[in-house]
Amino acid sequence: MPEVAVVGAGPAGSLAAKMLAASGRDVTVIEEHHEAGLPMHCAGILTADTIRLSGVRPDILGTICSADVIFPDGRRLALDRRTPLAYAVDRRVLDSRMADAAAEYGVDFRYGERFRSVTTDGKGVHALTDTGEIRADLLIGADGQCSLVSAGLGRNSAREYLRGIQVDVACRAEDEYRMTLRLGSCVAPGFFSWEVPMGDSIRVGLCVSPAYGTPSQYLRKLLQQNGLDRYRIKAKYSGKIPIGGRRITHGERILLIGDAAGQVKPVSGGGLNPAFKAAPHLRDAVNTAFDLGIFSSTILALYDRDWKRDFGGELDRGSRMRKAYLRLNDDRLNRVGALFDNPEVLGALARIDLDAPSEVIKPILAQKGMKTALLKILMGAYL
User: Fold this and answer.
1) pTM value?
2) Whole-number Å distance between alpha carbons of 198 and 176
3) Hey, is 372 helix, strand or coil?
């Protein structure tokens, strides 16, 4: 009987399992697929800090130093910097190496076993799978956006779900260091699209709010618009992204991490950096519970408190930025694009930290007349 059972062998589950095993816990990971890294949903764009936090060295497929942001009216804001903005990585390899790193610390991975449900009592948790039952002292839900562990805690859905799709097109980008983001209701209503150089291919994808239908129809138009529809599609990925957090990330003998906990950046939809930052707080809360011999929700609430103190403020600010963005129709987006099209703002945007995007707001608002101009645009969205 393991001390801790983890549901999900994605990056969040593998890192949490490794940290717990490294601190002396007996850990078992339950994974429904037959290997880590499949199916792949993420765009694979990671900052240097996120790669560092992963604890492994992924295969780097591209280095992103610049970005073009294209508005509905065709205005292109070019963001250029001397240092890398992010790296395009092979997510399948990243996931696999993180699972291997956890296994090196003694974590037992049970692949091809589907988690069904969990019950708790005074002696532990009983995780029912399609092959039997696993008993443990604690259960960690790292089972992604449609988390069954999270659902078992009651009304705990994410506040919003985005639907995403992306393809790898067999075409090498003209500029292998520049990605392109497109905004607007005709491209990706409720979010944005991306075109990312990935070595000998380009990853093209987008997300949309559910009210606007399936993302595949927008992807077809995007590929045609960019002349990429004539190239071979090497792979296709799709999935959902939970945005806005979840009501709770702990319960009696249960903790959540990653997408299962709603720890996702609302501005970009990225979840790896928050999950990696949450993992040490989860480890500390679990170890405190074992030290005390108490696995109640009250003790495990230390996890909620600590991760929210660490990066919860950034997620909250990101949620406010997203709410403001959703208020902008194409005309107002074009007005924002015109307002931002000056050297000072472009310089600030080029220095953006993708893991803390809200920090770019302060230098932008410091520009003369910017607060008033933005307020007029945003207030128009509320009238």
Assistant:
1) 0.94
2) 8
3) helix
Dump pLDDT digits (tens) for 330-368. 999 999 999 999 999 999 999 999 999 999 999 999 998
Nearest in space to 186 (alpha carbons), one of 341, 68, 71: 71
CATH assignment of 58-89+160-242? 3.30.9.10
Closest of 344, 194, 273 to residue 12, by C-alpha: 273
Joined together, the tokens standing for residue 152 give 């078992």
Give the mean pLDDT of 36-50.
83
Q: Extract the tokens encoding 256.
A: 């959540």
Would you say 155 and 251 are in contact if contact means Cβ atoms under 8 Å apart? no
Distances (CA, A) of 156 to 16, 125, 247, 368: 21, 19, 5, 43
Distance, C-alpha 44 to centroid of its chain: 10
Q: Rounded to whole angstroms, how far apart are CA atoms 383 and 375? A: 12
| Most distant pair of Cα atoms in the chain: their distance | 65
Q: How confident is the model at residue 82 (pLDDT cuts 50, 70, 90)?
A: confident
What six digits make up the tokens of 362?
């302060």
| Beta pairing class for 115-121 and 233-243 | unpaired
Pair 318, 371: CB distance under 8 Å: no
HSE toward the beta carbon, residue 268, CA cutoff 13 A: 23
Query: Peptide bond preceding 274: is omega within 30 degrees of 0, i.e. cis?
Result: no
Please report, for the chain, the start and end positions of each structural domain, with discontinuous segments joined by +.
Answer: 4-39+91-158+244-317, 58-89+160-242, 323-382
One-letter amino acid at 65 equals C
For 4-39+91-158+244-317, which CATH class? alpha beta
